Amino acid sequence: MPNGTHASESSPYVELDREAWAALGKSIAAGATEQPLSHDEIERVRGLGDELDLEEVQQVYLPLSRLLSLYVEAAGQLHRATEEFLHQSQPPRTPFVIGLAGSVAVGKSTTARVLQQMLAHWPEHPRVALVTTDGFLLPNAELSRRGILHRKGFPESYDRKALLKFVIDIKSGKDEVEAPTYSHLVYDVVPDEKVVVSSPDIVIVEGLNVLQSAGVRQDGRTGLAVSDFFDFSVYVDAATSDIRRWYTDRFLRLRETSFRDPASYFARYASLSRDEAVAEANRIWDEINGPNLKQNVQPTRSRATLVLRKDHDHSVRWVRLRKL
């Protein structure tokens, strides 16, 4: 674990503990970010079971939002410099795309929503869109036809061509790009329902596998990966034992809330006793989420520009940033 600020010449990363990272927020000028998020905004973005308060926002996400804002500004400067180099006017700069990855139950959705709100507070880029890759999951009917419904969330369960096309369209500068919608209530893609992303300054793409590298095609050539089009990437990390515990805790909370909705795909779990629910959550983790984390998600951590490492209480304890 980092102690203070560590920027060894032998490492391509700069690592800062919570105290050193939080100190960066104190040097940020007041104004639009003096009060990063209101209490109501924090309540809206906080995921089930996530521990998030104003102190966490101030100490962790304010510095991160400022760093990202600097990267966005630098991308704009590079765009203008390229115009000068080519001696010709170029199309408007394309949106700055941030990829955000991490395990089930690690809190990446909350991180994505917090960053969306925080980045929109900076006047330089008020239009921030958030798209989750859940909408690019293959429909349950198709997963069943392929015999992989039990592997939902694994890379092969996504329409990777559609997701790649979405990100390419964003980076091509299209005025409007559509993404499919997913319902966690019915545990399936919603037919004919789309999210429209219109002329954003920044797009956050959040999902389990967004940092995966490109695979080798049948002809032996390496294809494109979604991550090839990211300008910055974040991986939300934690000890596997903690993530497993958070997943079980969330499962128990859902058993008392949304699982009780008769329309829920998981309504059958509402009648389980606590011990039965814990056993079922452990089974799902051991058979699906745990293997997917180990085989597919964790190996992409080293590809991230920045890693947020959480402690057992969900608080971010240290940050690792790749050197430029």
Describe the structure.
The protein has 324 residues and is an alpha/beta fold. It has a single domain (5-211, 224-317), classed as 3-Layer(aba) Sandwich (Rossmann fold). It is built from eight helices and ten strands. The strands form two sheets. Strands 1-2-10-9-8-3-7-4 form an eight-stranded mixed sheet, with helices on both faces. Strands 5-6 form a two-stranded antiparallel ribbon.
Question: What is the gist of this entry?
Answer:
This protein has 324 residues and is of the alpha/beta class. It contains eight helices and ten strands.
Layout of strands and helices, then pairs:
Elements: E1 5-6, E2 13-17, H1 18-26, H2 39-45, H3 54-86, E3 96-102, H4 108-121, E4 128-132, H5 140-146, H6 160-171, E5 176-183, E6 188-198, E7 202-206, E8 232-237, H7 240-256, H8 274-297, E9 306-310, E10 316-322
Parallel strand pairs: 3-7, 3-8, 4-7, 8-9
Antiparallel strand pairs: 1-2, 2-10, 5-6, 9-10
Helix pairs in contact: 1-3, 3-4, 7-8
